């Protein structure tokens, strides 16, 4: 069971403190998780590295199972090359997403420690962890835009 009001999920990866998750229960569609089926509309993953199997599988879980997902924002702590984003799209199996209309956005160069964010406890806000994003410095320097990719 879930709380009917859980429509948003915010996760901040504290690298390198999280380890590969080996004891995670596999999702069984015959024993559905109510939030994934009916309520979860927004997922925000901050400081996602996309290099560890655990972080990739965690993000992929929501891509493949959140049926009413409208928006998924994934921020990366460092600059990544354009080809890296295409590879992530494949690893996360974005083409097989449970919610075909979900918008999945990745932003690079956004390492946040959230020490300056005063709203992290105000869950009534749309995104209490949202900090102003000026774009990825490296992407701008190389003329690649602001580092925001739709996958």
Automatic annotation (TrEMBL):
InterPro entries: F-box_dom-containing, FBD
Pfam families noted in UniProt: FBD
Superkingdom classification of source: Eukaryota
Domain (FBD): residue spans on this chain: 29-74
Classification via PANTHER family: FBD DOMAIN-CONTAINING PROTEIN, PTHR32141
Protein's name according to its UniProt entry: FBD domain-containing protein
Organism expressing this protein natively: Aegilops tauschii subsp. strangulata (Goatgrass)
């Amino acid at each position: 069971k879930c709380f009917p009001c859980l429509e948003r999920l915010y996760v901040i990866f504290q690298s390198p403190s999280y380890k590969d998750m080996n004891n995670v229960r596999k999702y069984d569609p015959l024993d559905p998780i109510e939030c994934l089926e009916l309520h979860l509309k927004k997922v925000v993953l901050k400081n996602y590295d996309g290099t560890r199997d655990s972080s990739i599988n965690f993000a992929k879980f929501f891509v493949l199972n959140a049926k009413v997902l409208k928006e998924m924002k994934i921020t990366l702590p460092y600059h990544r090359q354009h080809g890296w984003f295409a590879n992530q799209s494949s690893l996360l199996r974005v083409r097989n997403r449970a919610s075909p209309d979900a918008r999945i956005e990745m932003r690079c160069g956004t390492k946040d420690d959230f020490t300056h964010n005063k709203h992290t406890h105000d869950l009534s806000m749309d995104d209490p962890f949202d900090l102003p994003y000026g774009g990825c410095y490296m992407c701008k320097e190389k003329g690649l835009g602001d580092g925001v990719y739709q996958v």
